[in-house]
Design brief:
With about 200 residues, this protein is of the alpha/beta class. The protein is built from seven helices and six strands. It is globular, with a radius of gyration of 16 Å.
């Protein structure tokens, strides 16, 4: 049981999703990759929905696409944003700029991505450790707040799994936009009481 309610939002669409690209973003794009006009539109729509949720705090990854997303939402909600580097996207190491196919071929099976690190990169447990540390800090500092966290697909999926108390196998089963792995501009509201979530 958590002291606070959590809403998890993935940043708006970038050129990678707009072009249905399987490439992993370039390392130098972390602080420069913008969201598209469509991405801005989608986030403005989501921000209006979020206004109904009585959000108290906004935490965000400090990459450019999440900063842009957080800027749109914070303006609509009239709240400041706490930027935390621990909410950044997965570090793919030497696979930055390569195809998703090449990255996936590095692993013999999907679950291996939890514990096998890419050269100069992270595995899913590394990402989970740093993102859940943010949640633990929020839990220590606040109570009865509604907290919005703006981040990237895998970090949010791993946080959702942690908040819902799922083991790694259960998390893998739900690694899809219909489950708890968000599409661009998609929100998950984690329901503390019945270990469920709402997507919008």
């Amino acid at each position: 049981m958590w002291n606070n309610k959590y809403i998890l939002l993935r940043h708006g669409q970038t050129k990678y999703q707009a072009n249905a690209s399987d490439a992993l973003y370039l390392l130098e794009e972390q602080f420069s990759l913008p969201i598209t006009k469509q991405g801005e539109k989608d986030i403005k729509r989501v921000a209006k929905e979020l206004k109904k949720k009585k959000i108290n705090l906004i935490y965000s990854s400090d990459f450019y696409r999440t900063k842009q997303t957080a800027g749109i939402v914070s303006k609509e909600l009239g709240l400041g944003v706490i930027f935390d580097p621990r909410l950044r996207d997965t570090d793919f190491g030497l696979f930055h700029g390569k195809s998703g196919e090449e990255y996936r071929a590095f692993f013999e099976f999907k679950k291996q991505r939890f514990f096998k690190r890419t050269p100069k990169g992270e595995n899913w447990r590394d990402v989970s450790e740093r993102t859940t540390a943010v949640i633990k800090e929020i839990e220590e500092k606040y109570s009865d707040k509604t907290v919005l966290i703006i981040s990237h697909a895998d970090p949010l999926w791993l946080m959702a799994g942690h908040l819902m108390g799922l083991n790694e196998d259960k998390m893998l089963e739900r690694r899809s936009p219909e489950g708890i792995w968000p599409d661009v501009g998609q929100c998950f509201e984690i329901n503390n009481h019945n270990n469920n979530h709402d997507n919008y």
